[in-house]
Amino acid sequence: MDPADIELRNATYRRFVQLGRAPTAGEVAGAIHRSEAEVREGWRRLHDAHALVLDSAGEIRMANPFSALATPFRVEAAGTSWYANCAWDAFGIGAALHVDSVIDTECADCHDPVRVQVRDGRPDDEDLLFHVLVPAVSWWQDIGFT
Amino acid sequence: MLLFRSEGHITSWLAGREPGATIPVTKLAQLASAWWGDRLDPRWRPHAREQNQAILDSVGLTGPFWSLG
Q: Which domain range does residue A15 map to?
């Protein structure tokens, strides 16, 4: 991957962390002194490399583990909140930030609320189960469904 | 990639579909730490498939279901 694209990718993630939401191309462009068009071209290359995920309009949909869309996985850590793409990503936000976190989600079957506190990498409710429907080899065939 | 309260809830949610893989949330937390730990590191570089497979292996997620190809 080109160093300039890695710089763009890192700047996109930094702004996502700071804002608690996906940054716009303009916000990232301003942070790294590039044009909005250059940011969008770079985002497309990063999307093709699976380094982030764009929506059909070319906006950030996922900078895994962070989600631009509201999901049933809300994570609070270090005084900020983000949406995660799935249960795996929900645990990934605290892991990426290297801080404790609180995950507000639900049982996917009965929709009862579930709150998980993660301290030093360990969840406080150890009885919960994680289910992956799609085999690993197919995860990127439809990352939204996965 | 969802959380459930019990095996019974997974069975109910599947509604007859072929199940995938189920792991305890404690293992998920280990996996997340290994998989996402470098995501915000300024020295981050893309993971090769072999690196990601090694992370899955390191938490005991082996076999055809967990093969990245």
A: 3-62
